[in-house]
Specification:
4-stranded mixed sheet, single chain, about 45% helix, Alpha-Beta Plaits, about 160 residues
Length: about 160
């Protein structure tokens, strides 16, 4: 059965809430592995809308999908990892990650968010970022990188 795992599903009673929070936190490493990962951000006021909209859109596109949303939600940075419980179906989902990304990034864009958050732009988002940023923004990022790292020794060969 699909669904989303968030802090919102926790009980609000003292110790049971703390225990549930720790169970959720302990499960995060397991949720990190065989799934399609996203490090996105949206305005803080739109985090609940993001979780609702992305859950609905992913469930329509990939029935039974499981979404693990966690991270620095208080500042709008969300790790939105997407997978399926069935190993064979999950492997197919992983191979079709571009379709999953399209759904997630579409929701992010609709909420004036960014497809990159705390982990920045890496090699996997190298082409995708061109669809979400103005060329001037990309040039400004390159210029800032050059000022901060004139020798190109920090994170060499990466986008920013």
């Amino acid at each position: 059965m699909g669904g989303i795992r968030t802090l919102g599903s926790l009980s609000h009673s003292g110790n049971s809430q703390a225990a549930a929070l720790w169970r959720l936190r302990e499960a995060i490493p397991e949720a990190q592995f065989r799934n399609v990962k996203h490090d996105v951000s949206v305005p803080v006021s739109r985090v609940p809308a993001f979780i609702d909209l992305v859950s609905q859109a992913l469930e329509r596109a990939f029935p039974g999908v499981e979404i693990y949303a966690f991270g620095h939600i208080g500042d709008g940075n969300i790790h939105c990892n997407v997978g399926l419980a069935d190993p064979a179906a999950n492997e197919a989902l992983m191979r079709g990650r571009a379709a999953v990304n399209e759904v997630v990034y579409g929701v992010v864009a609709s909420l004036n968010g960014s497809i990159s958050a705390e982990h920045g732009l890496g090699q996997l988002k190298r082409e995708e970022i061109r669809h979400h940023k103005d060329p001037l923004e990309l040039e400004l990022m390159r210029a800032l990188k050059k000022v901060l790292d004139p020798g190109g020794i920090m994170n060499p060969g990466k986008v920013i």
